[in-house]
Specification:
It is built from nine helices and seven strands; from the N terminus they run βαβαβαβαβααβαααβ. The protein is of the alpha/beta class and about 260 residues long.
């Protein structure tokens, strides 16, 4: 299927590795121009090579609004347009209620949420010109809970709420806003988390046996495929949706 994304400029926060890296690579396959907002220069260099220079990396973390404003300015200076935005960067940092603090909670929410708003705000005028699309990568923890990670789940829940809010606000501009919700995806961050257990292989087996479809992890490429479809004109009448790409983990009986 030709998604007609050739030469479309798409910003991806955390776009050099994990789910973000898979999205960047998938966009290259579609002829689009991914802009990776990610400090991981080693991983980003591999994607830039794959793109034969038809991509961009901005090696920085988005700590405050000025960072996002700078990113958008750099992209416009180079390409003169923005056609899509994928808000993706974040990390499950285990700031809980019992084992946490108000200060740590506020930092966790800010780290995982604020740049979603900042990037969308500064990119909006350019998205309006091209009737662009926004995809927010959230997490099943926003709807299932996990335990011990209040800051992260609060941010992920807010991302789902903003998806619906922005979908309504941006209707007059034909800008579509959707969320993709992964569950168990074997990214580098996930691999690091698995390694914290005494028996990582057994822990992984205990998780995968409860994923109904195929008893396997979702791949980053499967998350990327849904994200790229939502960015494309083939998804022209889809907005305000929360789409679960999780092998049925969230909504099917896990004993199946």
């Amino acid at each position: 299927m030709n998604l007609n994304l050739s030469n479309k400029v798409v910003l991806i926060s955390g776009g050099a590795k994990g789910i973000g890296g898979a999205i960047s690579r998938g966009l290259i396959e579609e002829g689009a121009i991914p802009v990776m907002i990610d400090p991981s220069e080693k991983e980003g260099a591999k994607i830039l090579k794959l793109a034969n220079g038809n991509a961009m990396q901005i090696p920085m973390r988005l700590f405050d609004a000025k960072d996002s404003e700078s990113v958008v300015a750099q992209v416009i200076a180079k390409y003169g347009r923005i056609d899509g935005l994928v808000n993706n960067a974040g990390a499950n940092d285990s700031v809980g209620l019992e084992h946490g603090s108000p200060e740590a909670f506020e930092k966790s929410v800010a780290k995982n949420l604020n740049h979603y708003y900042h990037l969308a705000h500064y990119a909006l005028s350019y998205l309006k010109k091209n009737q662009g699309s926004i995809v927010n990568i959230s997490s099943k923890t926003a709807v299932t809970g996990q335990g011990g990670t209040s800051g992260y789940t609060a941010a992920k829940g807010a991302q789902l709420s903003l998806t619906r809010e922005w979908a309504v606000e941006l209707l007059p501009y034909q800008i579509r806003v959707n969320a993709v919700i992964p569950a168990e995806v074997f990214t580098p961050l996930y691999q690091n988390w698995i390694q914290t257990f005494d028996n990582p292989d057994q822990k992984l087996a205990d998780i995968t046996k409860n994923i109904p479809l195929g008893n396997r992890m979702t791949s980053p490429e499967e998350i990327a495929s849904m994200t790229i479809f939502l960015l494309s004109e083939k998804a022209s009448h889809i907005t305000g949706q929360h789409l679960f790409v999780d092998g049925g983990y969230t909504h099917l009986d896990r004993s199946l």
